[in-house]
Amino acid sequence: MRTPDDRWAELCAAALAGELSPAETVEFDELRRDPRRADEYEGLRGITARLRQGDLAWTPPRDDSDLEARIAASILRAEGETAEGPRVVEPVRRPRRPWLVPTVAAACLLGGLVIGANGAALVQPSVPSGPPGTLGAVEQLAVTDDDAGVDVDAQVVAHTWGTEAYLEATGLNVGATYELVFVGADGTEFPAGEVLGSEVPIVCRMNAAVPRSETVRLELRDTQRSVVAHADLPAV
User: Which range, 23-32, 70-79, 126-135, 203-212, has the best average confidence (pLDDT)?
Assistant: First the structure.
């Protein structure tokens, strides 16, 4: 399942390449209202501009189809050397072959690819894991879609300050309001926020001030309090 950061990375890459659709432009502008994301995007634009100014381009590799013949000819020449001594062969100096296209480079930086002087390496952040309720661990939920046409995926993460939900939804009525609610074992409800139905997939994070150990169910409801999707949380 994608996270909001994955969607932000996709939109950033498309924006840097000038390939946003009208609907994606609206979504991108909405996400960019976050000051942190706005600063991140401006930084990537600067990187892209500097890479373009560097005149980086792809150089096709040298054709090596005749490599075997050239090696054989070199051996024959070496065997035919005279008493004058071996012939000094100047090494062939090949130009460096820059391969980064500016937009791709910026997108890689956004996705966690670090470009260094000696190559590239993927940054693999440490992700907590463990049984349900482990702080910071992502728990995949089995969501039941109660409303025809709605498709919802959800994950939850336990924190010291409460419980966070990663939500991805399609098929919601455009412009309609939906509320995400955590339900405790005793029936107590803990609102986690609201979203508006959209033509594009909804990818968001929502939080409730309830310990993970005290919530047993997640519900997405419409304004009539009808449940459009729900998931029972694994026991902690």
Answer: 203-212
C-alpha span between 26 and 31 (Å, rounded): 9
Q: Decide if domain 138-232 falls under CATH 3.40.50.10860.
A: no
Stated length of the chain: 236
CA-to-CA separations, 47 to 40, 54, 98, in angstroms, rounded: 11, 11, 16
- Return phi, psi of residue 213, to 5°: -70, -15
Q: pTM to 2 decimals?
A: 0.50
The full set of domain ranges for the chain reads 1-125, 138-232
DSSP state of 27: H
* Residue found by looking up tokens 């480079």 in the block: 105
Question: Do residues 189 and 215 touch, judged by C-beta distance below 8 A?
Answer: no
Return d(Cα 61, Cα 70) in angstroms, integer: 17
Over residues 97-122, the pLDDT tens digits come to 444 445 544 554 554 444 343 444 44
pLDDT higher for 1 or 7? 7
d(CA 72, CA 78): 10
